[in-house]
Amino acid sequence: MEQWMARAAGRGTLTASAARVSLTPVDVALRGVAAGRPVVVIDGEDGKNEGSLIIAADAITPEWMAFIVRHTSGLVCVPMTDAALSRLRIPPMVHPDDERLGTAFAVSVDASSGVTTGISARDRAHTARLLADPASEPGDLIRPGHLLPLRAREGGVLVRAGHTEAAVDLARLAGREPAGVMAVLVEDDGSTRDSASCSVFADVHGLAIITIEELRTFRRAQEGNLRRVLTTQVPTRHGVLTAVGYADQIGGQSHLALVAGLDADGWFPDGSDVPVGGHPDCVSSEVIGRRLHRCGGDLDAAIEQIAAAGRGVVLYLSGREAPIVGIRATQQANESSAPEPGSADGDGGVDCAIDACDRDTAGHILTDLGVLNARLLTDLPARAEGQVG
């Protein structure tokens, strides 16, 4: 097995176990995965301080499987997507609540044909390739066996910073089937290698080495945390607008953009000087009403403005306000300076500030919609004013 990618290819460093760990840029590591070579994946400084050998499952050969078994614990796993495991009818090994450290083990498998006992490097490589093959069927596998499939979380390392998710992400980002072969690196005495030892191992064998956090950072830069999940027309009191929904793959929140003026591709044809309004999720406004919360009136006014102009965005950013905190803020404002009964707003009204997380979220959404620079209608993030992206 030839060495790949010169070791001097711009590696970063990570302090671990009193040593400097030399890291490979993620894009370089992905070229290795695409070429069918393993990569060493280690935890960050806050992790378990161990490393795994990972290779794309559709690229595994008997020689690479033998290499993995020789240098690891020998417990070889195949991280896969939930959809693939469901298609192959491979059930969980235990109830999710019983999974130590949150690793989602599935029932072990072997190939139903083309193998002998199932334990050899050749047999396990054959089974791993079957697991990765989208044409495989449940009858191609028998249970139990000598490979342990693992169920990766939807959203990958952005949702769970685990080696399981890293394996699937690496294979997918490298353009291969989203499944990996993975095992934990060990020393000659059988103890797990720490990050520093993993770095030495990678250097000796000419392998790329990355951290899970680096992979998370790479994905954020390439994809962002938000995924567009819905585009539909909705009636409002001010006319029909386009509703664009977004799912946050890390925090789990859902966000909504009400938009006027998008083209057929879901972008602004001209992203300059786009009117933009914003509204954080506000339980207090929705429960108590706008009398004590200015944000309800601001939201309605912003929707009215973009509908009248036929162009603009109003963002509704979810999941930021703790309901009790919001109600208490309203109570304090009411006690200090209560507005006149029946007034739509008052000096004591509460403004719902948009925090740093909201600013980042708003910037990503506006960029996705093709907004180059914004003209603010309400309290939106500074990042959105002027150049976006």
Molecular structure report:
This protein has helices at 26-34, 62-71, 82-87, 121-132, 163-173, 195-205, 212-223, 283-288, 294-309, 323-336, 356-368, and strands at residues 12-16, 19-23, 39-42, 51-56, 77-80, 109-111, 141-151, 180-184, 208-211, 226-236, 239-248, 254-260, 274-280, 312-317, 373-376, 386-387. By secondary structure, it is α/β, with parallel strands linked by helices. The chain has a 6-stranded mixed sheet with strand order 10-11-12-14-13-15, with helices on both faces. A 4-stranded mixed sheet has the order 8-4-3-9, with helices on both faces. The protein is elongated, with a radius of gyration of 26 Å. Mean pLDDT is 81; it is low at 1-19, 287-293, 320-331, 337-356 and 379-389.
How would you summarize the topology of this molecule?
Blueprint: E1 12-16, E2 19-23, H1 26-34, E3 39-42, E4 51-56, H2 62-71, E5 77-80, H3 82-87, E6 109-111, H4 121-132, E7 141-151, H5 163-173, E8 180-184, H6 195-205, E9 208-211, H7 212-223, E10 226-236, E11 239-248, E12 254-260, E13 274-280, H8 283-288, H9 294-309, E14 312-317, H10 323-336, H11 356-368, E15 373-376, E16 386-387
Parallel strand pairs: 3-9, 5-7, 13-14, 13-15
Antiparallel strand pairs: 1-2, 3-4, 4-8, 6-7, 10-11, 11-12, 12-14
Helix pairs in contact: 2-4
